[in-house]
Amino acid sequence: MKANKILFVAQEIVPFTVSNETSEKCRHLPQDIQEMGHQTRTFMPKWGDINERRNQLHEVIRLSGMNIIINDTDHPLIIKVASLQMARMQIYFIENDDYFSHTRISEPELRSAGYSDNDERSIFFSRGVLETVKKLGWAPDVIHVHGWIGALIGLYVKVLYKDEPTFRNSKVVISLYDDAFAEPFCDTLPESIATRNMEPFDVGDVTAPFNYTNFMKLALRFCDGLIIDTDKPDTEVVDYARQLGKPILDYPQENYAAACNDFYELVANDNE
Q1: Contact 43, 132 (CB under 8 A)
Q2: Interatomic CA distance for residues 91 and 121, integer angstroms
Q3: Which among 69, 92, 220, 261 is placed 20 to 30 Å from 31, CA to CA?
Q4: Are 192 and 71 in contact (CB under 8 A)?
Q5: Domains of the chain
Q6: What pLDDT, in 10s, does the model give residues 24-83?
């Protein structure tokens, strides 16, 4: 199978957020992959410190209007979009007043106990991305997730959407960064992840407390490959990926885009 359609799910992207290794990679990798002849789509949260006017964000009415139910509570899903003219790319933003509009990615509290609903934030973002892609009618061959905020993408693709034609053949790759959060999620995370349309699932040897390490290990169980995008990875997560026999692209990569492109092809054709 040729990996022609690549979906990028990012935690942060420059110039919408501050410049760092993650945001720079998430800005340039989709452009480089697109210039190699692939179709791409890119999603990120609409954090509260993103200036809509300066970045010319506007709502996509035809994609907005859905609700994501978490713990029996409805949360409206709003989709906005902005263009990176020089790159000929559009960035889709997942927005919600409860989880993103008043949450600033620049605040250290995002990774601490100051945001006790980070588990729900990750659930909402992951499901919001997939529901929007489904509504777009665009079936990705590979989904590349950057950062813990979208780490549940693989789980939902393989469990909730396993019979959904849009994602039936999708492979999921996750990038590991030095972005650990300080406080563990609630022990009820598995119950929060489940939905009315999703059978209960077994988290296997990944158990509470759902700290960063165990959360990423849970994500890895439902991914098809790991890219190490930091020189300070969580070694327990990397060791777990090796135990599972997951394909791994090690850090650093001399030509990042080319290395990722080759890795997408490897993952897309694994077990074919």
Answers
A1: yes
A2: 19
A3: 220
A4: yes
A5: 5-268 (3.40.50.2000)
A6: 999 999 999 999 999 999 999 999 999 999 999 999 999 999 999 998 899 999 999 999
